[in-house]
From TrEMBL:
Pfam families: ACT_6, ACT_PSP_2, HAD
Enzyme Commission number(s) of this protein: 3.1.3.3
Name under which the protein is recorded: phosphoserine phosphatase
Signal peptide stretch: none
Gene expressing this chain: serB
PANTHER family registered for this protein in UniProt: PHOSPHOSERINE PHOSPHATASE
Keyword Metal-binding found: yes
Amino acid sequence: MTNDNPRTDLIGLTFQGTDFPGLFHELADAMTRFGVEIIDVGQAVLGGSITLSFLVSSQHPEDFEVEMRRLAELRGLSLTLTPGMADDVHRLPGRAVVTLLADTVPAEALAEISAEVVHHGGNIDRVRRLARTPVTAIELDVSGVEVVELRRRVAEVSAESGCDASVAAAGLARRGRRLVVMDVDSTLIQDEVIEMLAAHAGREAEVAEVTERAMRGELDFAESLHARVAALEGLPVEVLDDVRAAIRLTPGARTLVRTLKRLGFTVGVVSGGFIEVVRPLADELGITYAQANTLEVADGKLTGRVLGEVVDREGKARALAHFAQNEGLPLERTVAIGDGANDLDMLALAGLGVAFNAKPVVRAQADAAVNVPYLDSVLFLLGISREDIEEADNLDVDSAAMSGTGA
């Protein structure tokens, strides 16, 4: 909505220099003596340096400006005064959030991505750092862009620069409860369960080769699954216990699930692997939904067959849609995370599809790609900062200590 009566009697003030406790209060308190009305204010602190801007009106502008200059000089701050500013500058329609993610963000990536924003008629309105360890995450608030087209171009720049980047719609679409559904093998966990089972049969290398080809999209997944499961025939069912005990969670997996649940999100897993392994893992992490294939067992041994319909590429997408329906959530409010070709339909169906350390065919088609080894980095794509995560963890520790249950 536009302002029919824009103010042009305003003064813009921008202070820059070394930050110190109480600076904001000192400046605001000084303004009270000059009948100042605050129209807008913004502050950014980076590495101990501060930029603090006010848009104000004053009943005594001349005296007010003299006092502000005196205070700036006293505190060793630079001050830029801009009289006659208006307050009717609105953000351009078409809002988006661009998130950059890397060990350290290359200047070339930031330059190229910001160039794409400008090329598409947009403007970067705000910038904030979401995390600095173990990866750097930077978020750009952008206006005046078409999300789908900007996402396509940013994905191309990301692939060339080696810096992960995503583009998501801003505003209310980014807030509220969501459903997050992820693949299991090589996503939630570091392992491929079927290869771990095949190792007990002495056929790990053979099965691993078929798995790799299926994940690259070179083989039909259902056919490859039946071929690989056949290699397990005759294994005692107890090997499932051994495999469950040996599974390694992906770094950041617990943090991701824990944080999503604290936000009130629902988490699900869907796997081309086996429910005998996936369901206990989901229960341990507090994951609500789990869907995977079921191994046939006879006389205490694996038969080399699966029961029922195979959870393949299409089955994963159907599972996501079913989970969303159960939760009463539109598909726009879903996030899917996966690494292989059999995840592509699920990633395409979700409101945000994230390729996690994925095969090239998956990275090329996903909305966003994460190529750092920490699964909780996906949280930054949702606008959740490392400080938010750590603060929530500390609150849980404090609550446990107060209740006497320990951490």
